[in-house]
Design goal:
Length: 134
Amino acid sequence: MPKAIKKRRKRKGHYNRGTYVSLKTGQICKHRSGWELSYMKWLDENVDVFTWSYEKVIIPYMSNAKTKKMRKYYPDFLVEYVDGHSELIEIKPLRRVHQVKVQKKLLAASDWCRAHSSTLKIVSELELKGLGLL
């Protein structure tokens, strides 16, 4: 009798996960990717950044218009700068930015930013390379 072929499951969590202690804020952050870790270090070293927080903002959004299912979206960073302005930052690969699920979250984030006098910034691999983080 032939041996059953096991189907390989895609391993979840294969990204660079871990904790980072911010030198600027003293927070202990559990990052979910190497990109987020690099950006955290960059925020700590940037003299224009007054303070930042990781996944502290909670934005409700409708994930399904038919069922009216509400979910919570946690953007990666809320950054406050020395000059007083703030940015909500999402780190996302370019190939994922145009996905429907991501677009729903970004639309809710842009509404949140308008209500809180902030700006939304999507940081992809292009911006990370430009900053010298990749």
